[in-house]
Amino acid sequence: MKTRHILNLILVSIVGILIAFTIYEPGRVQNSDVTLVSNYDPQKIKILILERDGSQILKIEKEQAHWFIRKPFDLAANSFQVNALLSIANNHSYTQINAQQHDLEKFGLKNPHISLHYDDKVISFGGTDPLNFRRYVLVDNTVHLINDGSYRYISQDITKFVSYKLLPDDKRIKKIELPGVLISKNAVNGNWDMTPKDNRVSPDELSMFIERWQNVQATDIKPWLADELKQDTVKSINIQFADNSELALVIIDDKSDLILGKNESRLRYELAETIKEKLLRPAESENQP
Known about the structure:
alpha+beta, Immunoglobulin-like, ten-stranded antiparallel beta sheet, elongated
């Protein structure tokens, strides 16, 4: 019993020393009104870059009012996810530490695992505080302590930053070739024609079918693995837009959910089973509510 009592006293003393070190550490200031980046206006940011282990893995650029991923693929960005990235700079800083008075190694900031760039402003993410589990981040010459949610967010797979919309917003379909059927816009009357013709489907229903393709969104996006497709069973969908650009899609799976692959980006888009038939078979469009 006496030994246990002594051990308890030792543990209490250690915790007290840690707390004292945290409170009285040189250069440490607590200010309830501080954010990571002062005078920050997200509307002025033009480029977002995410680095991991010193290598650029994601680059997002603003073009007019829209965000586009430029690296590692060229696709529209998920606006919700971009806004979440932009909001990180406004994170509340619980504690500020003068970086010049400390060895950054002890904060995990000498060689940070992840850095987020807002134009020329950089936020580097280090380790966590052992007492409150908040994350150390470096901005300019100040180490901040923030809640850890932002670190977990920017650690997610980069496919999460891709727009879930399958087709570009600024392109209109002119022709779509599906397995066994071709739908194209009649240059004379502007109606949609289907080859081979199906009397069950009217031009208006074909128009609804095209509009469904124009606005379809995936439920999830993941990297497309090379061994997911057998070459002897490849089925494809080819779309031509009004500006004569084209998009080739590969049907990776259509047994339950519809999974489509984009060749250039090597991404797979998962679409809900409830909409599968209405995207692959125009005759089903007449049953669309």
